[in-house]
Amino acid sequence: MKKSIPLLSTILVGMLLWCGCSTIEYRGTAREVHLNRIFSEHMVLQRNRPIQIFGTATPGSSVAVVFDGQRSVATADADGNWQVTFPPRPAGGPYTLEVNGQDRGIRFNDVLVGDVWFCSGQSNMEMEVNSVQDQKREIAAANYPRLRLMTVPKIALDHPVTEPPMVIPWQPATPESVRHFSAAAYFFGRDLQRELNIPIGLIHSSWGGSPVEHWLPRPPQTNPEAIERNQKLAEAALPVIAEREQKLAECFAFERNFREMAKRSAVDYPDSDWPEMKLPSVWENAGHPGLDGIVQFRRTLELPAAWAGRDLELELGAIDETDVTYFNGVKIAARGSLHDQVTGYWQRPRHYVVPGKLVKAGKNVISIFVGDLHGEGGFWGKAPMRINPLNDPDAAIALEGNWKYQIAVSVPGWPRTEGNGYFGMVVPFFRFPIAGVIWYQGEANAGDPAKYLVNFPNLIRDWRDNWGYAFPFYFVQLANYTVRGSTDSWARLRDAQRRTLELVPNAGMAVALDIGDPKDIHPKNKQEVGRRLALLALKNTYGKELVAQGPLFLRAEFKDGKAIVHFRQSSSPLVARDGRLTGFELAGADGKFVPASAIIVGDTVEVSAPEIKEPAQVRYLWSDNPVPTLFNQEGLPASSFSTEELK
């Protein structure tokens, strides 16, 4: 068994730990032509860079790709990989992308070209829109059709792969789609889209509680116990992975077996021993947690004689993810396809017309095959479930309540193994051009700021090297928070973040010291976090004339018993909130800091303390939960800082 592990394909060996999410797209390992999971309807492709489209197919077969009328042909290599490249183009759309192989074709509509931002970090980046302040208002107002969202579920891998094992595919920003999206990323993208009026794509790939090392290449394991543990996990995963692949093939085959579905939907098909489920409901809440695959639902109706031969309206609410719907054994509608990766209908209510020729007096049967391949599946919409004669809703018969059901195909989940987020949640996107990165992380590294000052710049360099260009990298400095058992661990980590700006070019830091919550490590004002990140991008990436940053420490000079603090050049005057500066400290040669007085003198701050005659060090806001007092005229706070060596 051990010798067989390296022979598995990179996707099959995928060692992942997934946290459940809705509407996740999966592509099987069959040799039919398909696109990498990164691509779907509603996606945004990066403007002004070569557009690369890639996927897999039968080795040696030709793949023809048409994008906005331009055609390119590729040949799949010995491993089945193919790629075509189209010339750079400006922002625009919507366009259509078509991919045709020897066995089938794929068509994605509503494709835009604009700017794509990769959004990563830990729980404050992961925090969803439905958890922020004014959440109901924000969700209801989320109507930005040219702002597109994609989420990468938590995937732990111990090796690189060429495509993410799972994604929540691209969706326009609507009240339904933004609810579970990263709040910091959404508000950042919303502000960019409003200001720039171009398509904006956001790829959210974060993991709560993750240290910065989680997002860097992990060195080979050398601990014998860990090696043995990983080996056992890998061996245990093999049969589960094999079963999953087999069941996925069965799932895709069943989805296209309309003859079998018609047979199971016939009026006289036996269902007396089927269990019942009360709808609307997702099946995870009805006794089937973790179920993926295809489930058939049946409902027998007694219809009035006056309805016979009349067209009927059938309303089913929203179905997650796909459905094929029958009436008296005849297919009347279908939305989405697991096999063809079309899963964007999960938030759309189903409203179908039943042809009158199918409608009989007395006994009639509605049969619905619902497909879902991760997260919640079934009926969850708020729209009513009912049936009535066309244009006569007052005569409707309610369909809420108990339905017979049967699991047609059940697909097992991925097994748990070990790894980190870099290989499964970042590496697959290196081939997909982006405009830049936004990052909110650091809480998990507060115990070792000196190490963070090495690893965080290394992360930025690694990602830029692998993407192939030095894109802008904007990050959030840790907000104010009361850390139990600590007085300055977060202050030191903040200074490591600030000093990162001195080590890597084309980076920016959004200071959040005034918008945190002393009692909540996940402050709810993510609107301002997103706005401050957007300000950095608008000024530094897009060249807008605005003030994007509060005062940033540049250097300190010590003379005449004072510390004179200089800041990076800014067009905005320094301001003392409430008229008085506090939070500054001075130390002499002994390194013992004492509270100090500070005043604004032009574009500097002069700091002094009676007991420190010859100051040697100065610092500002050196606590985990400080009260900022130094701002600029635009209300943006100064970053904390210290001139002492970071330890």
Number of strands: 35
Task: Return the average pLDDT rounded to an integer.
Answer: 90
Low-confidence stretches: 1-30
Distance between the termini: 47 Å
Instruction: Provide a count of the helices.
Output: 10
Which strand-content bin applies to the residues? 25-35%
- Structural class by helix and strand composition: alpha+beta
Radius of gyration: 29 Å
Structure, described:
The protein has 647 residues and is α+β, with helices and mostly antiparallel strands. The protein has ten helices and 35 strands. Strands 2, 4, 5, 7, 8, 9, 10, 11, 23, 24 and 25 form an eleven-stranded mixed beta sheet that branches. It has a six-stranded antiparallel beta sheet with strand order 12-22-13-18-15-16. Strands 14, 17, 19, 20 and 21 form a five-stranded antiparallel beta sheet that branches. Strand 23, helix 8 (449-467) and strand 24 form a beta-alpha-beta unit. Residues 1-30 have low confidence and may be disordered.
